[in-house]
Amino acid sequence: MNIVKPSTIAGVMELLPEEQAVFDRMKNTIEETFKDYNFLAIDTPVIEKNEILFAKGGGETEKQIFEIASESKDMSLRFDLTVPLARYVSEHFSELNFPFKRYQIGKVYRGERNQKGRYKEFYQADIDIIGNNELSIYNDAILARVIFEAFNRIDFPNITFHINNRKLLNGFFESLEIEDSTEVLRTIDKKDKIGIEKTKALLDEIIGTKSAKRTLEFIDLDKNNSEILNDLEKLSDNELFLEGLDELKTVYEYMLKFGIDDKNINIDLSITRGLDYYTSTVYETFIDGYEAIGSVCSGGRYENLASNFSKQKLPGVGMSIGLTRLFYQLIELGLIEDKKQSQTNYLILPMEEKLNFYAIDVLNKLKAQDKKADIYLEKGKFKKKINYADKINAEYVVIIGEEEASKNEVSIKNMQTGEQVNKSIENLD
């Protein structure tokens, strides 16, 4: 019989139990934060119809999807959680209450080129608020507050939201008589990756030297938030520009009111978010001092989430954390410790097989008291048993020998201090 060498494909993350426990704590903490702000959980299928996934046209996305090898070849693995959300809201529209506040944490799949920190399978944690026909701009600040608290709870209070508004950007380009700003926005979005010189060269080609110069000056206002807003008020009388400016000011003021400090907000006119469906507020979020790892949470407002699936107008705002990539980056930088945390407070060690039933009685009593307890029923010397307890990071071992059993007792040893005490089986707490 041939032995197949066990291995995973490139571009997936598989963790050992101790690492998995750290990841799960981070994921669960973020999920609890979403719940605390009354976001409702949904769980859409990993497999969607191709006609759903490519309703807006395939483009680059179609090159990255994993198609299911079926006879009909009409299904693929989801590449994000937003398209399934659009389908979900359209399909269940009459059964939902609006504004609909949803969260979803799940795996998505993309044919990413193999490189460090990029994954073919990865977790995303998304929150969105969807309106029916309209949605208050104040929700854009609520979303930021939820994300701010989530990062605080996973011990990253020093994050900065870089916020902007697409209406403000498009109004500015209208004032420069640039009819189609799509390529301009995509070029600006790549600025940090390709560098300022290449950005300038590309903009020169797209909109000409004069407009490129004005654009670079516009997106590079190096002032505090209040000064930028004051400068913007004097910059243009374009109607779309002023509408975007009013929304940007409102979101900024409400973020402050929701308890996000001014130092955690950066009005950044270079933030565009390359995706075409963003229509208003856009955000990217960075860990202070570690901006080089990129945005750890991003998103924005869209005018009509489900235009391809419904005649209903469903505006919304959403933010997404790429959990797998975030975890990888934080581990690489040593920003979260890969601490061994015990799954077991008490590990029960019967010294002989004939004491197993007595040991199980002790286990049942500890479980009845809601203690995290487990039992080791393998044969072996005491050293082997205590080594196992040490490896699983048990806080206490409950040692049961003949003497303890004869007295209806147990011997409890603190694995950190070495202190050992005898207790009656009826007085274990």
Element layout with pairings:
Layout: H1 17-36, E1 40-41, E2 47-49, H2 50-53, H3 59-64, E3 75-77, H4 82-91, E4 100-109, E5 121-130, H5 139-153, E6 159-165, H6 166-175, H7 182-189, H8 191-194, H9 196-207, H10 209-219, H11 225-233, H12 239-257, E7 265-267, E8 278-287, E9 297-302, E10 316-322, H13 323-332, E11 346-350, H14 356-368, E12 373-375, H15 382-391, E13 396-400, H16 402-406, E14 409-414, E15 420-424
Helix pairs in contact: 1-5, 5-12, 6-12, 7-9, 9-10
Structure in words:
The protein is of the alpha/beta class. The protein contains 16 helices and 15 strands. It has helices at residues 17-36, 50-53, 59-64, 82-91, 139-153, 166-175, 182-189, 191-194, 196-207, 209-219, 225-233, 239-257, 323-332, 356-368, 382-391, 402-406, and strands spanning 40-41, 47-49, 75-77, 100-109, 121-130, 159-165, 265-267, 278-287, 297-302, 316-322, 346-350, 373-375, 396-400, 409-414, 420-424. The strands form 3 sheets. It has an 8-stranded mixed sheet with strand order 1-4-5-10-9-8-6-7. Helix 14 (356-368) links the parallel strand 11 (346-350) and strand 12 (373-375). Helix 5 (139-153) packs across helix 12 (239-257).
- Biggest sheet strand line-up: 1-4-5-10-9-8-6-7
Estimate percent helicity.
Answer: 25-40%
- Give the oligomeric state of the chains in this entry, treating copies of one chain as homo and distinct chains as hetero: single chain
> What Rg is obtained from the alpha carbons, in whole angstroms?
28 Å
The number of distinct helices, counting runs of at least 4 residues, comes to 16
Task: Give average pLDDT, whole number.
Answer: 91
The fraction of residues assigned to DSSP E strands is 15-25%
N-to-C CA distance: 53 Å
According to DSSP, the number of beta strands is 15
- Which structural class do you get from the secondary structure elements? alpha/beta
Q: Sum up the overall morphology in one term.
A: elongated
Biggest pleated sheet: 8 strands, mixed
Question: Regions with pLDDT < 50 over 5+ consecutive residues?
Answer: none
